[in-house]
Specification:
The complex is a heterodimer of chains A (about 350) and B (about 325).
Chain A lengths: L3 H19 L16 E6 L5 H16 L3 E6 L4 H13 L4 E5 L7 H9 L4 E4 L12 E5 L1 H19 L3 E7 L5 H14 L6 E8 L4 H14 L3 E6 L5 H10 L13 E6 L2 H9 L4 E4 L2 H16 L7 E4 L2 E4 L3 H4 L4 H8 L1
Parallel strand pairs in A: 1-2, 1-3, 3-4, 4-5, 5-11, 6-7, 6-8, 8-9, 9-10
Antiparallel strand pairs in A: 10-12
Helix pairs in contact in A: 2-10, 3-4, 5-6, 7-8, 9-12
Chain B lengths: L1 H6 L6 H7 L3 H13 L9 H26 L7 H18 L5 H28 L4 H20 L9 H8 L1 H21 L1 H11 L1 H6 L4 H27 L11 H10 L11 H20 L4 H28 L1
Helix pairs in contact in B: 3-14, 4-9, 4-12, 4-13, 4-14, 5-6, 5-7, 5-12, 6-7, 6-12, 8-9, 8-12, 9-10, 9-12, 10-12, 13-14, 13-15, 14-15
Classes of the chains: A alpha/beta (about 350), B mainly alpha (about 325).
């Protein structure tokens, strides 16, 4: 027994020390808002992709600039764990919560819990289903408009070849409103352009690289004529590149056999592929704008301003023509530079 | 005489008795809580203790079922897939009922528990009748039912569930009552019933148990049925908590389930474990989650800490097993 107490204290200290490795620190010694330094809880469903890492970094930078303390929680894809984490943030009596939910539905109890505790909550990049007048503000990319513009850019490039193209769409997780918006944007852009692009394959990925790769490989076997691909997220590009290489179809723009390729997000891989000439266009989400708007919305709510509806991030399309001009605003280009 | 002394096992010291105690981990949990309470804001508040309890109950229910299987010398890797499959099937049943009253809730819960029991029974039958290893049977069941849950829903979440059903997981008194009832019943079965005695006998040595007249196959099937029921009840609680039928419910819970059972003293070698100790294991795992979460630690840090603790528990289990064998 005498040995047990020191052992457990040691264990506690070890755990505290480990915890310190992942703990966020206050922004600065003078950080305050009025008399009290604010603390914002940032609960992300995942850090699986570069986009989310860039998003988290952008939020932390924005909060640091405003001298606001951060408490972060990553649920690693588990909605129930995220619910527990949100309850932990409520227990810590944070001054606001920025939430990236797993999907539009499982976040509803989290939103209700935060609202019941009187804590403002903003959704980052993924909106929730409606809770009537209690639906929280969500800062979201205009997925439909941006993917439509991106695919329209690809279609315009396809028109210049003077041939009819066989198209493939790689879908995201259709439980995610973003994935639905991107699918609808794609469909809207190709509608009326069937003489240019005939969509012969729609591959479900569920935001999973292995599933995407298997789907693209199968699609290319079933339809070897495919020469036009749009992915609902750039993080699936490595899977597509791998499948295209296996099929001997990975060629630069301008080379014979080039597959017109487009994506969405604007990550570092997309930037590199644009630079190298393999990618034709991608729709870039402006994570810096989204982070700034999410934090501002929380502060506005705390100040008593009524917050309703979504805040739209218009984003922009980046392609071979405007690459140099737009790259400074592309978050993936910045990630690439800092590697 | 001198020979007797030479081969006699050493007298177990106090630390060894403590290590072997079923309640060792409860003591560690209490000390952990007391040691960290002054350092973590909000850790020792009634609100947080309430959260801790609410978060622990679904894990307790499924880990208690897993403990039964571990006592019998098996392992059930399919529990998380059972949770996902029952979550979406129960949600679909309730969604298709003409009204969303109490009848829909009762029907949905019955369907979920029924599916859990049937899948668990199927696992048990495959293991006993086909003489297949539990690891392979439950691993393939996990793969099949995980895929089934996603296939049935095409990855879509199902919401709009009855309020009564949501209360089962979302309101602590209901969750507590359902969990205590289930775990209490399981505890009684293990400690007081003939089935419990048979279960330990099978876990210690199935051959001896069979020779002694224990219906080994029936006991094993029963153990897997109980594990399936535990997973299904946990699914009821978590589905109600999330107000959503989720085809990936519990996908990441398996480490916690087996970890809680093993930290609580259940042995991979069978014949050891009880529900109260598993409850202590659950409490410890959730204390780690909760304390590190309140500190704002990343999920990956928490996973690293939990992985180390489960490894330590498995090592302690192995050590204990060797000590018992030496004695």
């Amino acid at each position: 027994m005498k040995k047990t107490i020191p052992c457990s204290l040691l264990l506690g200290l070890a755990v505290l020390a480990l915890a310190g490795c992942g703990q966020s620190t206050p922004a600065g010694p003078t950080a305050s808002a009025g008399d009290k330094q604010l603390t914002i809880g940032v609960a992300f469903e995942t850090l699986q992709t570069e986009f989310w890492i860039a998003g988290l970094d952008a939020i932390k930078t924005e909060l640091a600039q405003r001298k606001i303390r951060v408490l972060e929680a990553i649920a690693d894809g588990d909605a129930n764990r995220q619910y527990e984490q949100v309850k932990n943030l409520i227990t810590r009596k944070v001054d606001g919560i920025i939430l990236v939910p797993k999907d539009a539905k499982t976040c509803l109890p989290m939103i209700k819990a935060a609202q019941a505790a009187g804590i403002p909550i903003v959704l980052f990049n993924r909106p929730s289903d409606s809770l009537g007048t209690n639906t929280p503000v969500a800062v979201v990319a205009d997925n439909l408009a941006l993917s439509r513009a991106t695919v329209a850019s690809l279609v315009a490039r396809a028109k210049t070849t003077g041939t009819r193209h066989a198209g493939m769409l790689i879908l995201g997780d259709l439980g995610d409103m973003n994935a639905i918006g991107r699918r609808d944007g794609f469909e809207a852009a190709v509608k009326g352009n069937e003489s240019v692009v005939d969509v012969v394959a729609r591959v479900p990925s569920e935001w999973n690289q292995e599933k995407a790769q298997a789907g693209v490989v199968n699609g290319l076997v079933a339809h070897p004529e495919i020469d036009f691909i749009f992915t609902s997220s750039d993080f699936l590009l490595p899977s597509i590149v791998s499948a295209l290489k296996s099929a001997g179809k990975y060629k630069k723009a301008g080379e014979p056999g080039h597959v017109i390729l487009g994506g969405f997000d604007g990550d570092a891989t997309a930037y590199q592929m644009l630079t190298d000439g393999y990618l034709d266009a991608t729709g870039v989400q402006d994570v810096y704008f989204e982070a700034q708007q999410a934090v501002q919305s929380l502060l506005d709510q705390r100040a008593g301003k009524t917050a309703t509806g979504n805040i739209q991030d218009p984003g922009f399309v980046i392609d071979q023509e405007n690459l140099k001009e737009k790259a400074p605003r592309m978050w993936g280009a910045n990630v690439k530079k800092h590697r | 005489m001198s020979l007797d002394v030479a081969i006699a096992p050493p007298h177990p010291g106090r630390w060894r008795r403590l290590l072997g105690s079923d309640y060792f981990i409860l003591l560690i949990s209490a000390l952990y809580f007391l040691a960290l309470a002054p350092f973590i804001p909000g850790f020792a508040t009634p609100e947080n203790l309430r959260n801790l309890l609410a978060n622990s109950l679904p894990l307790l229910v499924v880990a208690a079922g897993q403990t039964v299987v571990l006592i019998a010398g098996g392992i059930d890797l399919s529990v998380t897939a059972i949770m996902a499959a029952t979550s979406v099937q129960g949600a679909l049943v309730m969604q298709r009922m003409p009204n969303h009253g109490l009848l829909a809730t009762v029907t949905g819960v019955a369907a979920m528990l029924g599916i859990g029991a049937v899948v668990g029974g199927g696992n048990g039958m495959a293991i006993t009748r086909l003489r297949m290893p539990p690891f392979i049977v439950t691993l393939t069941a996990m793969m099949f039912f995980s895929g089934f849950a996603v296939w049935v829903t095409q990855s879509q979440k199902i919401n709009g569930l009855p309020e009564d059903f949501n209360n089962l997981g979302g309101k602590l008194p209901f969750t507590l009552a359902a969990s205590l009832l289930a775990v209490g019943l399981l505890g009684w079965l293990l400690r007081r019933s003939l089935f419990g005695a048979w279960l330990y006998a099978v876990g210690h040595n199935p051959r001896t148990a069979r020779v002694s007249g224990v219906p080994v196959d029936g006991v094993l099937v029963g153990a897997y049925v109980l594990s399936g029921l535990g997973a299904a009840l946990a699914s009821v609680l978590l589905t109600g908590q999330g107000e959503t039928g989720d085809p990936v419910l519990g996908r990441y819970l398996l480490l916690d389930v087996i970890g809680a059972s093993v930290i609580g003293g259940a042995s991979f070698f069978g014949g050891r474990g009880n529900v109260l100790s598993t409850a202590a294991g659950v409490l410890f795992i959730k204390l780690i989650d909760n304390s590190l979460g309140l500190l704002g630690s990343s999920h990956f840090t928490i996973m690293m800490v939990k992985g180390c603790l489960i490894l330590a528990a498995a090592l302690a289990d192995s050590l204990r097993h060797r000590l018992v064998a030496a004695n």
